[in-house]
Amino acid sequence: MSVATKELELTWKANLKALEITQPYLIELLEQAAASLGFASWTVSYKDPYVELRDGAGKLCFIENAGLRYNCVNENPEGKSAIVLGLGLGNHFLNTFAERGENLRIICCELEVAFLYWAFHLHDFSYLISKGKLFFVVGKDRAERDAQWRKISPWVRLMGKIEPSIYIHKQYSGSDISKMKQFLNEYRGMLLSALSTSTIPLSRNLVETAQTALNAYIYKDRYVVTLQEMQEHWKGKPAVVVSAGPSLDRQIDLLREAQHHCVIVANDVIAYYLMEKGIMPHVIAALDYSHVVYDKLQKAIKALSAHERRPILAFASKVYPKLVYEWPGPLFSNQSDAVGPRTCQILGFNTLEVGSSVAHFCYYLAQAICPKEVIFVGQDLAYGEGGRTHSSGFAEGSAPTDLEIEVTSWDGLGSVKTNRHWYGFLTIFEHAIASSPVPVYNCTEGGARISGAVHVPFAERLKLHASDPAPSFLKGAKMEGVGLTLDNQRRMLKEINGVLKQTEDIRKELIRVKRLKTSPRSLKSAEKPYGAALKAWRDIFYNCEFLRGVITSLRFSSSGDLLGDNLSISTVHEAREIAELLLEDVEFTRAYLKEVRRIWGMFSPLLKDKDVVGRDLNEEEPAFMHELWLAVASSGDKPWWSSFLDEKFTPDALLELVVKAYGAYMEAPLNQMIEALKEQIPPWLYGLCRGWYDLLYRANFGKYLTFLSSYHKAEQFFKSSGMSESRLALFASLLVPQLRALAPFIQISGSVQVGDSTLLGDLLRAEALYWEGRRREYLSEMSKLLDRFKAESPLALAALKAGGGSWVASIATRTLRECMNADMPVEKFQEKFFEAFGISIKFEPANAD
Question: Are 470 and 260 in contact, with CB atoms under 8 Å apart?
Answer without folding.
Answer: yes
